[in-house]
Amino acid sequence: MASEIDIANLALGHLGDNATVASLDPPEGSAQAEHCARFYPIARDALLELHDWNFATKRALLAQVDNVWSQWAYTYLQPADCLRVIAVLDKNAKGDQSVSIPAPFSQTGLSNTGIGQYTPVEFVCETNDGGDEVILTDQADAMTRYVAFVTDTTRFTPLFVTTLTWKLAAMLAGPVLKGEAGRAEAKRCEGMAAAWLSKAIEADTKQRRVQTTQAVSWMAGR
Questions:
Q1: Whose CA, among 54, 123, 173, 178, lies 20 to 30 Å from 138?
Q2: HSE-CB for 63 with a 13 A CA cutoff
Q3: Half-sphere exposure (Cβ direction) of 174: Cα atoms closer than 13 Å
Q4: In terms of domains, do 24 and 123 share one?
Q5: Do 99 and 116 form a contact (C-beta atoms < 8 A)?
Q6: Are 27 and 62 members of one domain?
Q7: What is the extent of the structural domain holding 166?
Q8: How remote is the C-alpha of 221 from its chain's centroid?
Q9: Helix and strand tally (H, E) in the chain?
């Protein structure tokens, strides 16, 4: 798997720069290392936020705190490593948007066991007066699925790494090449990053298969 140093040097290579960075933390002292150390975490976190990457997706039970808003029933702290909340769930839920129909029914011997409604839990993410990032929702005993900050490059997929090298190259183009050449190269590298991002998302999405069984509640008792 590629390391941060590998990613930085690949990004510089996209720009035609022959420099070989040996350290980012701390930067080794070269101008290229200084630029890479500054832009690498920005490029990485920007890509992490753009998609629900399997390697960065986690679940966690939420810690409840005092709720001061009458519009919502509960306030929870976001997980410490949360970059972006994907969904808020009942702690026993399997999927983001499927809950069991509460009223039992039967028809020719069939029951509603396992049948779900397409009803995502409503929530908003805000910052409270104490500076804590919180989730407001009406869901009791809530769990969340979220995209986490991931710094361990061994968890990145090869396509994510490739996308990251081009994203980083786009950010480095201006400081490294400067002037019109830098602006043109930044535009080219952004185009390459977008192309690889599309491939990375497509491949990542194929690694999951979740089927929501939808049953409208008013039809359940028919």
A1: 54
A2: 6
A3: 7
A4: no
A5: yes
A6: no
A7: 4-51+152-205
A8: 39
A9: 5, 11
Q: Can you state the percent helix, strand and coil of the chain, rounding each to 5?
A: 40, 25, 40
Q: Are residues 77 and 133 in the same domain?
A: yes
Residue recorded with tokens 């980012």? 24
Same domain, 47 and 69: no
Give the dihedral sign, CA 12/13/16/19.
Answer: positive
Closest by alpha carbon to 112, among 15, 222, 1?
Answer: 222
For residue 75, the surrounding DSSP H or E stretch is strand 74-77
In sequence order, the 6+-apart residues with CB closer than 8 A to the CB of 133 are: 77, 78, 82, 125, 126, 127
Shared domain for 99 and 131, answered yes or no, is yes
Predicted confidence pLDDT, tens digits, the chain (222 residues): 899 999 999 999 999 998 899 999 998 889 999 999 999 999 999 999 999 999 999 999 999 999 999 999 999 999 999 999 999 998 888 777 655 555 554 444 444 444 555 578 999 999 999 999 999 999 999 999 999 999 999 999 999 999 999 999 999 999 999 899 999 999 999 999 999 999 999 999 988 766 655 554 544 455
Q: Are residues 136 and 93 in the same domain?
A: yes
Residue 77 sits in the same domain as residue 103? yes
Do 63 and 104 fall into the same domain? Answer: yes
Q: What phi and psi values does residue 166 have, to the nearest 5 degrees?
A: -75, -35
Number of domains in the chain: 2
Taking alpha carbons only, the member of 166, 69, 184 closest to residue 127 is 69
